[in-house]
Amino acid sequence: MNFKVPGEEERLKAIGSLSKLPEPLKAVFQEGSSFKPIPVPNPGDWLYEHPESGQTYKDFINSNPNKPDSKRNKIYLQPLGDFTEGASPSLGKLKEYVSAFFSSEVELLPPFDIKDAKLTTRINPYTKRQQILTTDILNLLKRNLPVDAFCLMAITMEDLYPHQTWNFVFGQASLRERVGVYSFARYDPAFYGEERGKDYKKLILWRSCKVLAHE
Which of 11, 26, 104, 133 has the fewest CB neighbours in a 10 Å radius? Predict the structure, then answer.
């Protein structure tokens, strides 16, 4: 592993001056129970396996990231495949969460039948479950991006993979092209043959909300 956890001085330097921020917003950049420094990655974690150079706030601004404007300001959620009651997060609650978290208007599109999309699939050699190639989904989304969309996010209970050499991936996005796809399949304990427990629906929803906010 080549990743080195940045110290406090390095983190503060990367953030830059907070002098012009209101006091409530400064809390976002202070270490505490809600916002903790990145921990030392473990084997299997992204930063353990993939070297990252890091990014300062100035670097981020200079990258000219996409921002909502008067013409493109709506978040679209595109369900892909079935969302079976009891085995999937509530689409209505996901929409409500995304709207609150990003303070944006969110539109939930009608579910899209996977069979109609002509997507590349395979059977995972370990789980024996079907997986869909993420790049095919991203290309599909690019062709169907609404004119007023800030972004179009496909959500699915199908397992995903980004390349033949990968076992699986939770999601993939093209930030510049404002599309992404995220799978909730592996957030169900039953995916791994584990007992769901009495609060499994809350667990699936909580995990699904976290990945939507993260991605």
Answer: 26
Amino acid at 45: D
Distances in Å between the Cα of 174 and the Cα atoms of 38, 68, 135, 141, 187 are 24, 16, 10, 10, 23
Backbone angles phi, psi at 40, to 5 degrees: -65, 125
| 165 inside domain | yes
**Within-domain flag for 111:** yes
Q: Give the model's pLDDT for residue 189.
A: 87
Handedness of CA 18, 24, 25, 27 (dihedral sign): positive
85-104 b/e with 16+ CB inside 10 Å = b? Answer: eebbbeeeebeebbeeeeee
SS3 71: coil
101, 48: one domain: no
**195 has catalytic annotation:** no
pLDDT digits (tens, 9 = 90+) for 76-110: 999 999 998 888 999 999 999 999 999 999 999 99
Say if 202 falls within a structural domain. Answer: yes
Which entry of 96, 107, 177, 215 is annotated as an active-site residue? 215
